[in-house]
Amino acid sequence: MRDLPLAGVRVLELGNYIAAPTAGRMLADFGAEVIKIERETGDELRNWRLYDGETSMLFRTINRNKKSVVLDLRTDEGREDVKALAAHCDVVLENFRPGTLEKWGIGPDRLSEANPDLIFVRISAFGQTGPYAQRPGFAAVAEAYGGFRELVGDPDRPPVRVGVSIGDSIAGLYGAFGAVMALYERLRRRDETRGAGGASAPLSDRIVDVALNEAIFSMMESLVPDLGAYGVTRERTGGRMEGIAPSNGYLCEDGSSVVISGNADAIFPRYMRAIGRPDLADDPDLANNDGRWRRRDEIDAAIGAWTAARSRDEVLAVLDDAAVPAGPIYTAADIVSDEQYRARNMVQEFDVDAGGPEPRRVGFPGIVPVLGEASLPIRSVGPDLGEHTDEIRDRFLGGRR
Predict the structure, then answer these.
(1) C-alpha to C-alpha distance for 135 and 325, rounded to whole angstroms
(2) Which residue in the list 168, 283, 353, 394 is annotated as catalytic?
(3) Would strands 91-94 and 119-124 be described as parallel, antiparallel, or unpaired?
(4) What's the pLDDT tens digit per position in 224-262?
């Protein structure tokens, strides 16, 4: 097995749910030793979408490659153990409401006393500062504040949410990037001050502050610039992307669906000929995107009628012959059987306790990004509750129980 780029980095994860644990997963995937602290009842994610058994596949996925240690942060003993562990770590991840760790006496200032190089990644609803900092909030609320929810769904219906915790996941990615950025800065600082007794960076420079609403807002492309420059307020457009046509999802005769992106000026004429509509291909009003957007409903109706009379495979074969970008809208079963995912080791199987009398062979999503030609192997799926408590106590806490 290749050397992993974050081997030697140790992370103390105090997070719950999805955001901070996603950051921890990213760091663990690439070699960091991530020590996940859980209360006696465990991370609540263990019970989310739990169809059988004691630990959900959601938890197993987001907490892969980590070690689980049970500590009670509400007790003096638990907090002292956290301080002792932090002294041996490079990064602390947390996603409590701002001020919670400080109230418990294990805020960044206290944890830095024994480890002045310690990096803190703090993920919260609205960040550590500002008038909203103390407000509680899950990603659903942050997605609304960030402008995302307003654009999801059909224009004649209330906004909807996507089927995954996208706000938490994006914040987690930013948290992992922030941690690596801070580790690099620490390394650069050491190189610059080598031989000069280099001091640690000030605490403010070692805190990575990720707000869920800002993580979402950063993904909103030109939402705000469009308002300032043109006075345009973007609106929900269903399966379309505003101002781009035709690009949408379409239902096929066999009940499956496809996405077709035929919005480029050079592609559109051959797209229309492929679906038997040369009149649209030759219409001068549809030669550019502005004209197509104005008549998007007419174009989508023509495409939808064509796909509805054909199977998904037939639709994709015709469009492939015409060099029109298109693809199937995959289900989980489609992903598992897809040759491209398999070729890049993007579905990795493990025997897992799923509540039955015997373990089940379960596929888990591979590690992204790929280093080399295929996904790095997952070392372990999310641990059982407290699975590594004794190991970590023996290594860092003098074996005390």
Answers:
(1) 44
(2) 168
(3) parallel
(4) 999 999 999 988 888 888 888 899 999 999 999 999 999
- Would you list the domain boundaries of the chain? 10-220+377-396, 247-251+257-328
Q: What is the DSSP letter of 237?
A: -
**313 has catalytic annotation:** no
Among 105, 93, 91, smallest CA distance to 62 is for 93
Residues 39-79 pLDDT 10s = 999 999 999 999 999 999 999 999 999 999 999 998 999 99
pTM (2 decimals)? 0.91
SS3 assignment for 159-177: CCCCCCCHHHHHHHHHHHH
Q: Which of 68, 67, 65, 81 is nearest to 29 (CA)?
A: 65
CATH homologous superfamily, domain 10-220+377-396: Crotonobetainyl-coa:carnitine coa-transferase; domain 1 (3.40.50.10540)
Cβ distance 57 to 84 under 8 Å?
A: no
Q: CATH classification of 247-251+257-328 is 3.40.190.10, yes or no? A: no
> CA-to-CA distance for 360 and 293, rounded, in angstroms?
49
